[in-house]
């Protein structure tokens, strides 16, 4: 199927998101769509599938003008969309989710579980995955949920599959099997629109790439005829130099010491320390228990044993408010759920963890508050139309910065970052790395949980590797550690040095 | 009246003096405790029909059984500068302040069915609820004999009708009837039905049932259809209630004459504005309406 | 990936879940059994088959309304107007029967009218974007007022009603020894059970409550589905109304006052979450039975009316807390 | 980035926002003005200062309860027990006054007790994890039952109450010509306004309603804050109760029945979202005034009581729909 989107424009109020965008998809190609956070990629796809209406422009499918009434209409015409935000129902089973609103019915109009089950298993087999169809989907890891979304799209016998950030939560092995499937389907004539902030992935899977910036399409070229530098320059509008900043760690005394931390089924006997000015990376496969450890330290979840000491003193942390009082901050993995109040303003979000510092004689001092917020917005270069607009209307990268601002503002001496750059564009990533370095220079101790191996290797001073709830090793990153060393540990192997 | 810093009387209120007025010039404000019940609708009809005949203007408010709503209603009526207030209080103590307000504003108050504990009331038109309860008990003792087992359906807890009818009945029944259970059905026919069914289950040997109003009694009639010998006595004399007595479904009902009450109240107002003396108690008669077979 | 270990984990998890689910279905059932046991000990005549049938008949009205309410609550909504719909439609049907319309037709019209009133709720909520709580609070007031205007505050009784066999049969009849209202309740339960658990409409209902935005993206016609759900609630309320007027041999203008709270309590006692997306209609049946047993039992035992309210409130709290604990 | 363009944009956006915000505050005010105008046209005595004071006094009880309810609803909760708390605490205070406790102390104890009852709601909701709707529905039943048990179903009146100047003054007195209940309402409004909009407690309240999980992770003590909010609701309800018993010169066991619905309606009419996180207490004041004007106005105009309910329901729907439209 061939798709041409011509002269598409779209505004939300005063925000001109798309300005005369053109996009062309050919038969049997994988077409990468890249651009900064907020460049309008998801919006363009929403317009294609009829979730949003364009202000102007036209869409041609196989040279015939079309207009879809909605996602279901698009799907019936062979275009299937795997959304960036998980669009599933946590309280429903995997099977119910996969067939939602396209249930197979028998001649009595009743749902035919048996047929659906068989179909689902068939798809699982081609993707080389296996999940229990009766499990509540909300109980599965984000990665598993993502794979199920992908299976759903495969099932619809689509001619075009749109994937918006499909790999943000996947592990390498899952990505490998996903790419295998993509190539397999491409061979059968299926086209893909592939949106991802991971440039290496785009280089590996895509045939062609279109780059958007500020609501325009600025470049379309064959992957074979472009390179990483060109892509980044087109995206960001300037050369950002290296992806990762230089790092000169100067660590001080130990500030955080975790001993024998225990949770019945999530992790066992976890011991580690972090020093002033140090970055301790946490690596591991999905579900290896990294997030759970951080949540236990921060008092979000209850733990079953173990101690946390700060500056050598054992502390009792029963809730996040205790943790904050001890100078710990926590940028959660799931910013939409636990990081932000999406329909509150940027300002209200930023002050949330620092309320008591803004009080003068029992009342909130509005001037102090405004100064505080403005300073942080400026320092973190959060791109926002004022501090009074809803955090939810910012682009992903800027939302992430708002969460960072909240914890930096809270004056955390120990900062836990769980997947700080997930879904963030290269430019914003670089800014976040610079910020992390600046914080460590000021003596802040940082724990960085990340599934992005190059990121962990480039930023961490030491790397803790988790495997199924056990800490395999803490590797010193000063020497010649490679990705495969970490992967070996993360899959249960022994370190080979 | 000077405007004291602290005061309890309304500084803006001006008193009016009694004038003689013809019925056709009168504005009558009526506040009824509720209009969810045929009994009170009959009172309303009695008032409005009598008033319309003489050309008076009438405004009727529904207190919805809420003391608060009623006191707001009465305030609004005082505000509208009606010439006379006819009040059927939700509660006789809670209406007191409003009666006092009316007194201050120089508006005469006539109460129906229940009076006010305080303030000046021109006249109370009522039948004696306690007496009614006694009539019901006497009837039951007469029909069922001494020590008969009976059950009692109570009205909404705390409502004055519940208290007075219950007290009249219970005091008379004491020592003469065996009240095996008392359960509330909130003056409601549906609840009367369910509760009577359950009572019949718990006490299959009861010979009679006293219900503090006809609505609950009618529910009980449906519940006890399989046992038509149970003597059901209601209270109110509502249209449905009297019909049920006529059909022999209920043994008796203590009939008040709500329409009559309304009429008497309006007539008392007319008398007052003619300058005649109005008696402070106008008795509306009670009548025990008995089914043929128990006569 | 270490697929075997992970698989084992998943399998175990799923097993745990199944057991939990069954337990969570059993929670209310257990509460019901305990209640029944206590009542029986205090007054053995509770178990009299006569009383049990009696109890079931008393439950039927709340049951029917609560079944409809289950759909509404599953979408995360609420319908406070059920009692008022009951009153208005049953007054309408009673009036029609009185003026000579054949009973069945009059009742059918009443039920269809109930569906329309429910649809009105649905439109205000979907098209108007009003919160279900306030929308149905407002329509409750309107429908109740309309009933008073329509009946002039008087109950409607007539010879025509009393002489119609069908009219009497609906609320007071027996079919093979089982009260007709009970049969109506069970048939409705069966139909709605199928609708909710075996047909796509049910999936849509759960999806709406689980994640409305995702439901929209999945192509579910959110507004239409929701409106239909309020229609169902209206239909169930008016159907309950038909049973009520037959049982009382009259239509009361203030019938159904407070029924919304009993229905909501039944739904929640049955384990359905007020946030939507989670629950089962079987639980609602049990919830309605718990409330019925409570009322019937306290009457049988002879608890004074003042204390009945306290006991009822405490039982509701205990049941809800137990259910929450189990999930945590 | 083109910073000048952006700055211009920012300035414009912020202006738009400010205007919108003010408009959204004005929505209910506009509705109130329209209502007042209509009433005045139909009966000019509406504007009589006497009637306006009268109106304000009538509003004060619902206003006080609705202020507390605003906090509860801002967290996404609901408190159905306010009317029952009012009844129980006012009965308690009346009983104490009757048995010789000085009026002010008796009332203070009543109000503190109201706070405790609210705290009980809070504990059941936070520690027990019960949904606010069902938790407060259950406590409503319990508190009401307890009131009946405590009063034995009888209203409490006494010489001691009637002879106490302070007792009379609270509900029926005037201070510089302004009814005392109105003054109490305005003082409470002022205090709660400061608490909600100028202190950290208010920020926490909003955050809880906006995203409870995020609030928790940000270090807000969710359970404690929530419990305090229900305490506030309890305190406001019992304070309203003190005014009510003074106005009625007696404590009625069934006082406050249905007050929860009026309070919720006032909050929602004032533009506060039932989902929590969005709304203002000023809106609630206006909402309470709208309801008061509606009741007073319909009485003044002389709309028959059956039709009053219909009109009230329709006005609520219109006001809520207008508010929604504006936001969309
Ligand atoms: N429904 C909406 N209402 C208002 N603004 C919106 C809406 N959806 C998107 N936007 C705005 O449109 C712009 C583009 O958003 P979009 O989600 O398309 O970006 P994206 O390229 O997908 O970014 P990311 O890489 O972060 O996913 C952003 O500025 C965003 O704030
Ligand atoms: N196989 C599984 N079955 C059930 N729940 C799981 C499974 N794997 C993960 N989860 C849960 O899903 C959530 C997200 O897990 P996640 O994969 O993020 O774990 P993690 O160790 O933090 O790894 P990562 O940081 O790579 O995401 C956690 O609450 C976890 O308990
Ligand atoms: Mg996107
Ligand atoms: Mg994680």
From TrEMBL, chain A:
<dbReference type="InterPro" id="IPR027417">
    <property type="entry name" value="P-loop_NTPase"/>
</dbReference>
<keyword id="KW-0677">Repeat</keyword>
<dbReference type="GO" id="GO:0005886">
    <property type="term" value="C:plasma membrane"/>
</dbReference>
<keyword id="KW-0067">ATP-binding</keyword>
<dbReference type="InterPro" id="IPR003593">
    <property type="entry name" value="AAA+_ATPase"/>
</dbReference>
<dbReference type="InterPro" id="IPR017871">
    <property type="entry name" value="ABC_transporter-like_CS"/>
</dbReference>
<keyword id="KW-1278">Translocase</keyword>
<keyword id="KW-1003">Cell membrane</keyword>
<dbReference type="InterPro" id="IPR050107">
    <property type="entry name" value="ABC_carbohydrate_import_ATPase"/>
</dbReference>
<feature type="domain" description="ABC transporter">
    <location>
        <begin position="246"/>
        <end position="493"/>
    </location>
</feature>
<dbReference type="InterPro" id="IPR003439">
    <property type="entry name" value="ABC_transporter-like_ATP-bd"/>
</dbReference>
<keyword id="KW-0762">Sugar transport</keyword>
<dbReference type="Pfam" id="PF00005">
    <property type="entry name" value="ABC_tran"/>
</dbReference>
<keyword id="KW-0813">Transport</keyword>
<keyword id="KW-0472">Membrane</keyword>
<feature type="domain" description="ABC transporter">
    <location>
        <begin position="3"/>
        <end position="239"/>
    </location>
</feature>
<keyword id="KW-0547">Nucleotide-binding</keyword>
<dbReference type="GO" id="GO:0016887">
    <property type="term" value="F:ATP hydrolysis activity"/>
</dbReference>
<dbReference type="GO" id="GO:0005524">
    <property type="term" value="F:ATP binding"/>
</dbReference>
<protein>
    <submittedName>
        <fullName>Sugar ABC transporter ATP-binding protein</fullName>
    </submittedName>
</protein>
From TrEMBL, chains C, D:
<feature type="transmembrane region" description="Helical">
    <location>
        <begin position="130"/>
        <end position="151"/>
    </location>
</feature>
<dbReference type="GO" id="GO:0005886">
    <property type="term" value="C:plasma membrane"/>
</dbReference>
<keyword id="KW-0472">Membrane</keyword>
<keyword id="KW-1003">Cell membrane</keyword>
<feature type="transmembrane region" description="Helical">
    <location>
        <begin position="20"/>
        <end position="41"/>
    </location>
</feature>
<feature type="transmembrane region" description="Helical">
    <location>
        <begin position="100"/>
        <end position="124"/>
    </location>
</feature>
<keyword id="KW-0812">Transmembrane</keyword>
<dbReference type="Pfam" id="PF02653">
    <property type="entry name" value="BPD_transp_2"/>
</dbReference>
<protein>
    <submittedName>
        <fullName>Ribose ABC transporter permease</fullName>
    </submittedName>
</protein>
<feature type="transmembrane region" description="Helical">
    <location>
        <begin position="172"/>
        <end position="196"/>
    </location>
</feature>
<feature type="transmembrane region" description="Helical">
    <location>
        <begin position="300"/>
        <end position="322"/>
    </location>
</feature>
<feature type="transmembrane region" description="Helical">
    <location>
        <begin position="227"/>
        <end position="245"/>
    </location>
</feature>
<dbReference type="InterPro" id="IPR001851">
    <property type="entry name" value="ABC_transp_permease"/>
</dbReference>
<feature type="transmembrane region" description="Helical">
    <location>
        <begin position="61"/>
        <end position="88"/>
    </location>
</feature>
<dbReference type="GO" id="GO:0022857">
    <property type="term" value="F:transmembrane transporter activity"/>
</dbReference>
<keyword id="KW-1133">Transmembrane helix</keyword>
<feature type="transmembrane region" description="Helical">
    <location>
        <begin position="266"/>
        <end position="294"/>
    </location>
</feature>
């Amino acid at each position: 199927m061939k798709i041409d989107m011509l002269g598409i424009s779209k505004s939300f109020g005063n925000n001109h998101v798309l300005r005369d965008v053109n996009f062309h998809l050919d038969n049997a190609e994988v077409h990468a769509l890249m651009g900064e956070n907020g460049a309008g990629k998801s919006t363009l796809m929403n317009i294609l599938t009829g979730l949003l209406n364009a202000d102007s422009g036209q869409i041609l499918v196989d040279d015939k003008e079309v207009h879809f009434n909605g996602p279901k209409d698009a799907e019936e015409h062979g275009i299937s969309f795997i959304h960036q935000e998980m669009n599933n129902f946590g309280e429903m089973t995997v099977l119910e989710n996969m067939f939602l609103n396209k249930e197979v019915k028998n001649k009595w109009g009743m749902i035919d579980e048996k047929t659906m089950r068989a179909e689902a298993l068939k798809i699982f087999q081609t993707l080389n995955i296996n999940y229990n169809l009766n499990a509540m989907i909300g109980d599965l890891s984000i990665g598993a949920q993502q794979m199920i979304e992908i299976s759903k799209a495969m099932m619809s016998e689509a001619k075009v599959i749109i994937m918006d950030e499909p790999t943000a939560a996947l592990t390498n092995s899952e990505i490998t099997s996903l790419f295998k499937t993509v190539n397999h389907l491409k061979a059968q004539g299926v086209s893909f629109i592939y949106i991802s902030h991971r440039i290496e992935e785009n280089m590996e899977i895509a045939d062609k790439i279109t780059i958007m910036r500020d609501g325009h399409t600025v470049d379309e070229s064959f992957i074979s005829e472009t390179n990483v530098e060109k892509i980044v320059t087109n995206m960001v509008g300037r050369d950002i130099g290296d992806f990762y900043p230089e790092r000169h760690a100067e660590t001080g005394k130990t500030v955080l010491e975790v001993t024998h931390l225990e949770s019945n089924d999530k992790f066992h006997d976890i011991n580690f320390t972090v020093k002033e000015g140090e970055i301790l990376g946490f690596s591991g496969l999905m579900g290896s228990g990294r997030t759970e450890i951080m949540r236990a330290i921060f008092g979000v979840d209850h733990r079953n044993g173990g101690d946390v000491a700060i500056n050598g003193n054992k502390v009792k942390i029963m809730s996040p408010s205790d943790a904050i009082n001890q100078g710990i901050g926590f940028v959660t993995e799931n910013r939409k759920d636990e990081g932000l109040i999406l329909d509150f303003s940027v300002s209200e979000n930023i002050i949330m963890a620092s309320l008591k510092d803004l009080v003068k004689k029992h009342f909130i001092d509005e001037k102090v508050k405004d100064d505080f917020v403005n300073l942080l917005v400026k320092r973190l270069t959060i791109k926002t139309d004022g501090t009074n607009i809803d955090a939810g209307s910012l682009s992903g990268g800027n939302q992430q910065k708002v969460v960072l601002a909240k914890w930096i503002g809270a004056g955390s001496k120990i900062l836990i970052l769980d997947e700080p750059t997930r879904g963030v564009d290269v430019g914003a990533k670089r800014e976040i790395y610079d910020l992390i370095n600046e914080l460590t220079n000021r003596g802040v101790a940082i724990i960085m949980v990340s599934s992005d191996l190059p990121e962990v290797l480039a930023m961490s001073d030491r790397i803790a590797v988790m495997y199924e709830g056990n800490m395999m090793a803490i590797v010193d990153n000063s020497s010649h550690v490679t990705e495969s060393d970490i992967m070996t540990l993360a899959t249960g192997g022994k370190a080979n040095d | 009246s000077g405007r004291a810093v602290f005061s309890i009387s309304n500084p803006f209120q001006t008193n009016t003096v009694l004038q003689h007025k013809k019925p056709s010039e009168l504005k009558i404000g009526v506040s009824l405790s509720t209009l969810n019940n045929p009994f009170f609708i009959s009172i309303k009809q009695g008032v409005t029909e009598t008033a319309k005949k003489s050309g008076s203007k009438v405004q009727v408010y529904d207190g919805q059984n809420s003391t608060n709503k009623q006191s707001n209603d009465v305030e609004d009526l005082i505000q509208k500068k009606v010439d006379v207030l006819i009040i059927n209080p939700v509660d006789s103590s809670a209406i007191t302040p409003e009666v006092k307000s009316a007194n201050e504003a120089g508006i005469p108050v006539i109460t129906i069915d229940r009076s006010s504990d305080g303030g000046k009331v021109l006249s109370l038109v009522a039948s004696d609820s306690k007496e009614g309860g006694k009539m019901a008990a006497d009837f039951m003792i007469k029909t069922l004999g001494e020590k008969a087992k009976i059950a009692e359906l109570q009205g909404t807890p705390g409502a004055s009708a519940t208290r007075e009818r219950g007290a009249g009945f219970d005091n008379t029944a004491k020592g003469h009837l065996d009240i095996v259970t008392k359960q509330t059905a909130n003056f409601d026919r549906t609840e009367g039905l369910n509760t009577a069914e359950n009572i019949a289950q718990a006490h299959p040997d009861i010979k009679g049932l006293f219900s503090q109003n006809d609505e609950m009694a009618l529910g009980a009639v449906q519940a006890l259809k399989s046992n038509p010998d149970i003597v059901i006595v209601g209270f109110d004399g509502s249209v449905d209630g009297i019909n049920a007595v006529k059909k022999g479904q209920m043994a008796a009902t203590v009939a008040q004459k709500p329409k009559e009450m309304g009429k008497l109240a309006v007539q008392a107002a007319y008398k007052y504005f003619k300058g005649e003396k109005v008696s402070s108690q106008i008795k509306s008669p009670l009548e025990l309406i008995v089914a043929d077979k128990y006569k | 990936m270490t697929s075997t270990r992970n698989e084992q984990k998943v399998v175990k998890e799923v097993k745990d879940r199944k057991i939990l689910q069954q337990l969570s279905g059993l929670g209310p059932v257990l509460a019901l059994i305990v209640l029944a046991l206590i009542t029986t000990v205090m007054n053995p005549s509770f178990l009299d088959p006569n009383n049990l049938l009696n109890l079931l008949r008393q439950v039927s009205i709340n049951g029917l309304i609560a079944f409809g309410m289950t759909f509404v609550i599953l979408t995360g909504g609420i319908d406070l107007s059920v009692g008022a719909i009951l009153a208005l439609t049953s007054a309408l049907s009673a009036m029609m029967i009185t003026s000579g319309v054949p009973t069945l037709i009059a009742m059918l019209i009443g039920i269809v009218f109930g569906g329309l009133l429910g649809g009105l709720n649905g439109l205000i909520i979907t098209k108007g974007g009003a919160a279900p709580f306030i929308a149905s609070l407002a329509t409750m007031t309107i429908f109740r007022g309309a009933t008073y205007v329509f009946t002039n505050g008087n109950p409607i009784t007539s010879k025509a009603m009393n002489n119609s066999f069908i009219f009497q049969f609906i609320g007071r009849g027996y079919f093979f020894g089982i009260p007709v209202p009970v049969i109506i309740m069970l048939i409705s339960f069966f139909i709605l059970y199928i609708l909710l658990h075996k047909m796509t409409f049910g999936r849509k209902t759960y999806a709406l409550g689980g994640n409305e935005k995702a439901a929209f993206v999945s192509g579910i016609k959110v507004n239409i589905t929701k409106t239909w759900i309020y229609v169902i609630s209206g239909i169930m309320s008016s159907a309950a109304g038909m049973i009520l007027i037959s049982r009382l041999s009259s239509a009361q203008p203030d019938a159904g006052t407070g029924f919304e709270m009993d229905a909501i309590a039944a739904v929640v006692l049955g384990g359905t979450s007020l946030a939507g997306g989670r629950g089962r209609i079987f639980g609602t049946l049990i919830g309605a039975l718990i409330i019925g047993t409570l009322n019937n039992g306290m009457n049988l035992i002879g608890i004074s009316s003042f204390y009945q309210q306290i006991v009822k409130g405490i039982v509701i709290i205990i049941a809800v807390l137990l259910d929450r604990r189990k999930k945590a």
